[in-house]
């Protein structure tokens, strides 16, 4: 096994035991980037010189007994919305052509303090306003979409071109590409991970979180990221927590909600079959399955768009007026549409969100976790714009991908996607686990238990 094939947890164990050096690990990942990047195009920028320098520093520190923790010397990638001092944050847009970050974002600073080594910035849809990441190819099939808007981060992790990565999630932009590329994606509780220094799409829906090989890796990264930062007005004040899940795999007493509506409506048969098998596996591990009714589903899409569109337009107000021609046509049209939305519609969306949060909160009086598909279909061929369901209805691809993930953004609840096998053409399928606010430990426990019981997963078979 090559060092780039190791999960972050396994690599950390090897580094701590002295079986591997940070230099060997970073060199292996950089070599892997050179091998797969021409086919996959996951990276906007590869910071090879910086990475090698930081790896040598990490090696000196560990040799001197100054071990910063489990992420010390681990290669990471950051979505190109996340500021790193002295590095461009382009947001994959010509609007940011001359931008250079003056300071680290909170998450970059925290990961740097933990000793993680930046190997590059990953592609996103322009300003994260999309669910496809058009620059990047799916790690399992280059003719298919990567998902987005954290598509570059998901593909880098799936292909072994980063040990872990960060993405942002406004309507599913961590979980959608994670599911489509066969990796783990965690959208934490709203406010748990600070967003200072991260380019915003929609301030009341934005989250930042990890994309990783395993659930245990996600827990390691979350432990380094979480914590209050007063520079983010939404940042929660919480006690420091080690989020790593127990290793026994016993889910006895865990109540798993299985939706009888919404989440299994209009999904592909191969996705439904894989997710239901995974839910049955949770029951075999001791969980008790409970049917639940998802509330207020008819209002979800309108509420999500009613919040996101005007907030995105407000963020871009100045540049939309001064340099509109620098935006791609699809993003510019969405931003201009936001200028036409009445304030009353935004207020009504906020009121609807409050009612949804209350209704979802009541669900968690009955269950501890809700298990459902992450996306309704595997990765579609690049260029496909619509899906036709067996009932004859047609749905846009981006609308379909966001449909099952947006509820956790509207409510702010934590959500974890875990690979649960393969569907059509051997492409990955994801199961989404959602929990109550600050219930990450429960999601990670359930996801890790499933992962331990499931067949071992390999990296994407990049040619």
TrEMBL record:
UniProt-listed Pfam families: Amidase
Gene3D superfamilies for the chain: Amidase signature (AS) domain
Entry protein name: Amidase
InterPro entries xref list: Amidase (IPR000120), Amidase_CS (IPR020556), Amidase_dom (IPR023631), AS_sf (IPR036928)
Biased composition (Basic and acidic residues): 240-250
Region Disordered: start-end pairs: 231-252
Record organism: Streptomyces lunalinharesii
PROSITE patterns named among the record's database cross-references: AMIDASES (PS00571)
Residue span, Amidase domain: 24-444
């Amino acid at each position: 096994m090559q060092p780039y094939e190791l999960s972050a947890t396994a690599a950390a164990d090897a580094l701590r035991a002295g079986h591997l050096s940070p230099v060997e690990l970073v060199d292996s990942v950089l070599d892997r980037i050179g091998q797969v990047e021409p086919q996959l195009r996951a990276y906007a920028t590869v910071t090879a010189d910086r990475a090698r320098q930081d790896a040598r520093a990490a090696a000196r520190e560990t040799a001197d007994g100054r071990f910063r923790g489990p992420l010390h010397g681990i290669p990471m990638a950051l979505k190109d919305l996340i500021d790193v001092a002295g590095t461009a944050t382009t947001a994959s847009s010509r609007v940011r052509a001359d931008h250079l970050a003056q300071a680290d974002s909170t998450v970059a600073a925290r990961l740097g303090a933990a000793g993680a080594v930046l190997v590059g910035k990953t592609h996103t849809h322009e300003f994260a306003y999309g669910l496809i990441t058009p620059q990047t190819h799916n790690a399992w099939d280059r003719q298919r979409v990567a998902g987005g808007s954290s598509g570059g981060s998901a593909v880098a992790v799936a292909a072994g071109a980063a040990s872990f990565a960060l993405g942002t999630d406004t309507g599913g932009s961590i979980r959608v590409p994670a599911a489509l590329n066969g990796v783990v994606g965690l959208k934490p509780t709203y406010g748990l991970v600070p967003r200072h220094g991260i380019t915003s799409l929609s301030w009341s829906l934005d989250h930042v979180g990890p994309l990783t090989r395993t659930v245990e890796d996600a827990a390691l990264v979350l432990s380094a990221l979480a914590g209050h930062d007063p520079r983010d007005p939404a940042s929660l004040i919480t006690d420091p927590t080690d989020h790593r899940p127990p290793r026994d795999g016993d889910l006895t007493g865990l109540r798993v909600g299985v939706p009888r509506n919404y989440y299994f409506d209009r999904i592909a048969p191969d996705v439904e079959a894989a997710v239901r098998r995974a839910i049955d596996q949770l029951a075999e591990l001791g969980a008790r399955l409970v049917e639940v009714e998802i509330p207020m589903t008819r209002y979800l899409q309108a509420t999500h768009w009613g919040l996101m569109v005007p907030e995105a337009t407000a963020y871009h107000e100045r540049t939309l007026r001064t340099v509109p021609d620098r935006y791609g046509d699809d993003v510019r049209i969405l931003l201009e549409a936001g200028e036409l939305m009445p304030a009353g519609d935004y207020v009504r969306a906020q009121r609807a969100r409050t009612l949804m949060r209350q209704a979802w909160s009541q669900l968690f009086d009955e269950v501890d976790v809700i298990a459902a598909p992450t996306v309704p279909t595997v990765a579609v061929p690049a260029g496909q714009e619509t899906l036709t369901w067996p009932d004859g209805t047609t749905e846009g691809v981006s609308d379909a991908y966001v449909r099952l993930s947006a509820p956790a953004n509207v409510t702010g609840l934590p959500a974890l996607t875990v690979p649960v096998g393969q569907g059509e053409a051997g492409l990955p399928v994801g199961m989404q686990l959602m929990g109550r606010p600050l219930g990450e430990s429960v999601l990670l426990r359930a996801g890790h238990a499933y992962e331990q019981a499931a067949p071992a997963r390999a990296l994407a078979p990049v040619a």
